[in-house]
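Translate structure to sequence.
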């Protein structure tokens, strides 16, 4: 096998391994960055929901406490306010979702779906878990969800949710006596769940990966061609020329050509050495012929 073929096989092997390793590392990194971007959006949404809850509890509810004696106003409930805020957001971004999923809710719309109930039960079974991040498939694509437990930490929540008798009559008139009771202090009754679509960031990551791998392949091809040109020009052609002259000299054709070079690299040194060897051989042959 010729030297250039051996060189190309080794070079192709190195490039193939490097291409695969670079592709694997870059793909994992881009996918991780895309997921982290989605998770960051989810955290911002969660903080926005908590801010809405806090604002409603501290500034809206006190202003409407008097009216609550005559009519129950769900707008004073922090969970209701946070959900309504994100319902407005979903008019323009329907793939985003926020829900205060509850196992036994007062408002039926807050009842946890099957997968949401599983999340709530994880919080209930492991009280040390403060946050759950996961992914699930939806009709619109892959979605990341961020969840935090809803735990009764204030006694102010209990009058409306312990027994039907203790609950405000206006609330019973609105929601009925069937749901939202029996809550206890420190009990985890549900979970705040933010769902953010992953489609756009993942598509962006895939496009970036394709562009990167295409650029890397172009660089590899350019290096491959350049190295082959350099190898042929600086090594193969010169060695072939030396081999041809040496072959002619070995057959007794001393006028086949001269071992001349102006290069001082290794092949240049070899050329000078072969030139001296030819001169010595010619002189030795003439001495033999003269004798």
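Result:
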């Amino acid at each position: 096998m010729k030297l250039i073929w051996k060189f190309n096989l080794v070079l192709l092997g190195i490039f193939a391994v490097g291409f695969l390793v670079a592709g694997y590392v870059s793909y994992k990194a881009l996918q991780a960055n895309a997921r982290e971007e989605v998770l960051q959006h989810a955290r911002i949404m969660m903080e926005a929901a908590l801010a809405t809850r806090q604002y409603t509890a501290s500034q809206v509810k006190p202003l409407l406490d008097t009216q609550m004696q005559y009519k129950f106003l769900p707008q004073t409930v922090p969970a209701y306010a946070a959900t309504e805020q994100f319902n407005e957001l979903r008019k323009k971004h329907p793939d985003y979702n926020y829900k205060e999923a509850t196992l036994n809710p007062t408002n039926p719309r807050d009842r946890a779906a099957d997968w949401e109930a599983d999340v709530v039960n994880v919080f209930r079974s492991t009280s040390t878990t403060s946050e759950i991040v996961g992914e699930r498939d939806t009709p619109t694509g892959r979605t990341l969800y961020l969840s935090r437990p809803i735990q009764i930490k204030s006694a102010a929540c209990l009058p409306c949710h312990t027994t039907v008798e203790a609950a405000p009559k206006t609330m019973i008139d609105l929601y009925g006596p069937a749901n939202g009771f029996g809550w206890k202090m420190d009990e985890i009754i549900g979970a705040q769940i933010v769902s953010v679509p992953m489609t756009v960031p993942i598509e962006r990551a895939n496009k970036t990966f394709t562009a990167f791998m295409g650029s890397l392949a172009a660089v590899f091809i350019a290096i491959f061609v350049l190295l082959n040109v350099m190898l042929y020009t600086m090594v193969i052609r010169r060695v072939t020329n030396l081999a041809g002259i040496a072959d002619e000299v070995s057959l007794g054709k001393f006028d086949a050509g001269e071992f001349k070079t102006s290069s001082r690299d290794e092949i240049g040194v070899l050329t000078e050495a072969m030139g001296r060897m030819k001169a010595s051989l010619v002189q030795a042959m003439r001495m033999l012929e003269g004798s």
